[in-house]
Specification:
456 residues, alpha+beta, 6-stranded mixed β-barrel, two-stranded antiparallel ribbon, 16 helices, elongated, disordered N terminus
Length: 456
């Protein structure tokens, strides 16, 4: 028979071979492509299998929880209140931090404030601005010799009466340079800022704040109008954006900005300065810039080693940043306190799951006896804890949003809730469910089937 088979094989003609396996078909066969198709099909079936398994597990978990509706609801309520309180409390703290950050942004661009100080004379020391020690030469020296300072503006200020038509208003004048706008990070609402040419020519022009506009012009456009500053007719060429009340309770919009040369020559009749405003190149450079400015001014004012400074140098940003750090720490403290309620909710989950394991001991024994693995039993009870925490997290986020809206509408509290805060609250709830649900689930998986079946 072997000889016959060989003879039959030898009798096959080449033409028949080519018809059975065409050359172009052989060239299209790609072992790698077949393997990729098989892998993709296998992965698709595996994903579908796990989707069906997870869906089945969660359906079983919901049925188990539904059998004890009241107990499940009370446990769910603890998670809901925990997540809702976490969201509301963090939202209140975040709003406070945002307000402090807003004040910091409005304060200025890494601002350093140099104020005329005082010297001790015969044991008596006058207060701030007790003597006139700051002059324009100090401004020029800081600009040229302190590289950590990028912008400098002199300041001459005081109280003055302004008049437009039949209306007058008592406000504060400030004699500055155009750099003042950048140092204070103050945008124009309309019009333009006066220029260096206006400063050099002591021009009778001014830029006013929104409080002055409200009290002098009302709804009228002030740009191009002429007001009397004391006895000087000044043309309004610009209006600043509104900044509101400062951290110290002062109205930041009640002022008239003028070229400092105009103020010195035509209002005060003096050559000294009340303040010098500086802008450091960065927030980190402020302390070193302060040291360099202090050293320079002491040298210029001929102060010996034992003499006190005849000026005061401050960085208002330090105070605001300290307030911001305090607000942020307070927010974290509130969040930690609210998290305790989530911890209590997690303990509630563990409590209900332990009771559930005790009540369903015979059921667990039957499952283990018919072939269920420890992993399957553990997964079943853990899924029930996860379902409670997921539902509690979702409903807690919704309750927190509704509670925040109610507080805003009734008590007019400012609350700032972000998606990140809501997501953290929901994920923390799930984490509590997994953490506190694992011990009861593991206890159920480790039951002895024989002892479980005998349990009454």
């Amino acid at each position: 028979m072997r000889i016959a088979s060989l003879a039959h094989a030898n009798s096959i003609k080449p033409g028949r071979e080519s018809r059975a396996f065409p050359s172009n078909t052989l060239s299209r066969l790609d072992p790698g492509q077949g393997a990729r198709q098989f892998s993709a099909k296998f992965q698709g079936k595996l994903v579908h299998h796990y989707q069906v398994l997870i869906s089945f597990i969660f359906r079983q978990a919901l049925r188990a929880l539904w059998r004890n509706k009241l107990r499940s609801f009370l446990t769910l309520l603890g998670i809901i209140m925990g997540v809702a309180s976490f969201i509301c409390v963090v939202g209140i703290g975040s709003a406070g931090s945002s307000r402090v950050q807003e004040q910091l942004d409005k304060l200025g661009d890494n601002m350093i404030w140099i104020e005329a100080g005082s010297r001790k004379s015969n044991g008596v020391r006058a207060g701030t601005r007790g003597i006139r020690t700051l002059v324009m030469e100090d401004v020029h020296a800081i600009t040229e010799q302190v590289p950590l300072v990028k912008l400098v503006s002199p300041n001459v200020d005081g109280h003055i009466q302004v008049v437009y038509g039949n209306t007058n208003w008592g406000t504060q004048y400030r004699g500055v340079t155009p750099e003042y706008q950048q140092i204070r990070r103050w945008d124009l609402h309309s019009g333009d800022m006066f220029t260096a040419e206006d400063v050099n020519g002591s021009a009778l022009v001014c830029v006013i704040g929104q409080t002055v506009i409200d009290n002098l012009f009302g709804n009228e456009d002030p740009i191009g109008k002429t007001i009397r500053v004391n006895t000087l007719p000044c043309k309004v060429i610009g209006a600043m954006e509104r900044k509101g009340i400062s951290a110290t309770g002062q109205d930041q919009d009640d002022f008239v900005l003028m070229p400092y040369t105009t103020v010195q020559k035509k209002i005060t009749g003096t050559f000294w300065l009340d303040d010098i405003y500086c802008s450091a190149i960065s927030q980190a450079a402020i302390p070193e810039a302060q040291r360099q400015v202090t050293s320079l001014l002491r040298e210029r004012h001929h102060l010996s080693a034992g003499d006190d400074d005849d000026f005061n140098i401050r960085s208002p940003e330090e105070l605001i940043r300290a307030q911001l750090a305090t607000a942020q720490a307070f927010t974290f403290l509130l969040a930690g306190t609210a998290s305790l309620s989530l911890l209590v909710g997690g303990i509630g989950i563990m409590n209900i799951m332990l009771v559930s394991v005790t009540e369903r001991t015979r059921e667990i024994g039957v499952r283990l006896a018919v072939g269920a693995t420890d992993h399957a039993v553990r997964l079943q009870f853990l899924s029930e804890a996860v379902v409670i925490s997921v539902l509690g997290g979702i409903l807690g986020v919704l309750t927190g949003l509704l509670g925040a809206a109610a507080l805003q509408n009734t008590l007019h509290w400012e609350i700032q809730i972000t998606q990140t805060v809501a997501l953290i609250g929901c994920l923390f709830s799930v984490a509590m469910g997994v953490f506190f649900g694992y011990y009861p689930a593991n206890k159920a998986a480790q039951l002895n089937p024989i002892e479980a079946l005998r349990y009454e």
